[in-house]
Amino acid sequence: MEQIAEGLHLLRGTPRHAVNVYLADGHVVDAGTRWAARRIVRQVSDQQLAGHLITHAHADHQGASAALARELGLPVLVGHRDADAIASGQLRDRAPVNPITRLQLRTWAGGATPVARRLHEGDRVGSFVVLETPGHSPGLISLWRESDRTLLAADVLFGQHPVTGRPCLHEPPAIFTLDPALNREQIRRLAELRPAVVTFGHGPPWRDPEGLQRFAASLPS
């Protein structure tokens, strides 16, 4: 695992940074696709674990969640607006319906996952505070730690180009995003925090607060 900040590590994945899974204060954050369970368990089974947090109900973030919760005995934490989708395994209304998202649901999504805790704005998860940041998904949450200005932004932003994989700031593609305009509001909100380090669901960490603010300011209203 790669340490990003105090108590925050990025798990190994192939390709690197394509679909990220983190360990944050003992919480496995996201779970990749249904095929990622074995590699995640290998990396975290010797850690002191407190739970499994799913940032939002998309197939590339909850795919291995049911297996992780079962194999590791972890309580599952989810933003309250996406909790029913996680609990039922019915993700269809969490993203636009198109051939790509239908294929993801068939090949990447995991099954129903019991939810132990439904998270709201201001709740604490370890040393982090929950921010409700809907747009990409109705219940997407981010995690913020003010003491060292560390932000887990999930898919509010991509840290790489979605096609080429080149490291850069990028909006999540509209074909995966229910409300792009609302998501841009969340990008602007997160940029105002001036995070020292930002992690993403896709892409390497970002350590340029001014660059994030410039990117947010360049977005259409």
From TrEMBL:
- What SUPFAM superfamilies would the database entry show? Metallo-hydrolase/oxidoreductase
What SMART domains does its record include? Answer: Lactamase_B
Q: Where is the Metallo-beta-lactamase domain?
A: 18-202
Q: Which CDD domains does its entry note?
A: yflN-like_MBL-fold (cd07721)
| Gene3D superfamilies in alphabetical order | Ribonuclease Z/Hydroxyacylglutathione hydrolase-like (3.60.15.10)
The UniProt entry, under Pfam families, shows: Lactamase_B
What this protein is called in its record is MBL fold metallo-hydrolase
Question: Which lineage is the organism of this entry classified under, starting from the top rank?
Answer: Bacteria, Bacillati, Actinomycetota, Thermoleophilia, Solirubrobacterales
